[in-house]
Amino acid sequence: MFTARHRLELPSLPKLANPELEAELKGLIDQKTKPLHALGRLEALALQLGLILNTSKPQIIDPQIRVFAADHGLTAEGVSAYPKAVTQQMVLNFLAGGAAINVFARQHNIALKVVDAGVDGDFEAHPDLIALKVMRATRNSLQTAAMNADECIQAVVCGMGLVREAPGNLLIVGEMGIGNTSAASLLLSKLGSLSIDSCVGPGTGLEVNGIKHKTAILTQVLHKHRNLKNPLEVLAAMGGLEIAMMVGALLQAASQRRILLIDGFVASSALLVAEKLQPGVKDFAVFSHHSAEPGHSQLLKLLDATPLLDLQMCLGEGTGAVVAYPLLKSALGFLNEMASFSSAGISNKDAE
Ligand SMILES: Cc1cc2ncn([C@H]3O[C@H](COP(=O)(O)O)[C@@H](O)[C@H]3O)c2cc1C
Ligand SMILES: O=C(O)c1cccnc1
């Protein structure tokens, strides 16, 4: 139960609107040696990154990936195609450098740390592992709240603290938690007032009957927690420890003017909760890709977001975000390095 004692201090957001800087950036972009608007969405991206970093010469410095891992009590109801043990096994795979996110992170030279937010298993100390286990898996949300108020707030606060101490000005949050597409679907349905059918999908690969079963279970979970309204209470009742930590990480990162490079369905569900808690957080977000998980379309609509890529990916871990990362480098590359019409001595449109 949330009571008056359970208060979460949210970091305040810096103001993004800056008409002078916006005019300067637009002027720079329009003066580059290209037809007007010819770099398409890279131009809007360059403008957004300039406004987030609050400079006309934005640079990405020391980009960071944090992969948050945790288990879900709801997996006892058979909502995932894979067993819960895969969460712990995949954490070991991350630490050994063998997962998709490791490959892409190495490819683009992005620092990666794995966070144990609540995996049902133990790990030996490892330089890339941050141990913040709040509890061993959430409780089964069909029976009771997944987290109590203290646990949920602790997870959000841990996520904030982690980012406060991290270097860099761009953050990718990834996740690993068998069962977490169920938590994301529940959060989307509840916070977006959407029918659960439009928010559920195969996750790691459920077939038609598996999706029917998942939908039936999630319908019951929503009924059990039907009286909740406050986004933090909804997060505690139906979310996950890794999602709660991602919420804290995103809130903190935005408050420090970091670029939030958002992955797929599950990461976007954390952003939705963050946006409900602190409206405006999403303006610091770049949406990397459109996940093939069906609920992501609803979630993107709700957040009024148009992602950069649609590669039919549905993996999580932060993979879609890292794959889109070079587009941000290209946007900043043209802004900072391209010649202008005057510097290159090229005639602009309408010149005599
Ligand atoms: C081997 C393997 C690697 C993964 N990496 C990310 N996920 C993804 O799948 C899980 C969510 O799907 P569901 O809700 O259906 O369980 C999350 O752990 C997510 O990050 C994986 C899943 C598996 C099986
Ligand atoms: O898009 C995602 O985040 C996703 C989709 C399926 C499974 N895990 C994550």
UniProtKB/TrEMBL annotation:
Pathway: Nucleoside biosynthesis; alpha-ribazole biosynthesis; alpha-ribazole from 5,6-dimethylbenzimidazole: step 1/2
Keywords per UniProt: Cobalamin biosynthesis, Glycosyltransferase, Transferase
Its EC number(s): 2.4.2.21
Residue positions of the active site: E317
HAMAP family named among the record's database cross-references: CobT
Function field: Catalyzes the synthesis of alpha-ribazole-5'-phosphate from nicotinate mononucleotide (NAMN) and 5,6-dimethylbenzimidazole (DMB).
Protein known as: Nicotinate-nucleotide--dimethylbenzimidazole phosphoribosyltransferase
Species: Marinospirillum insulare
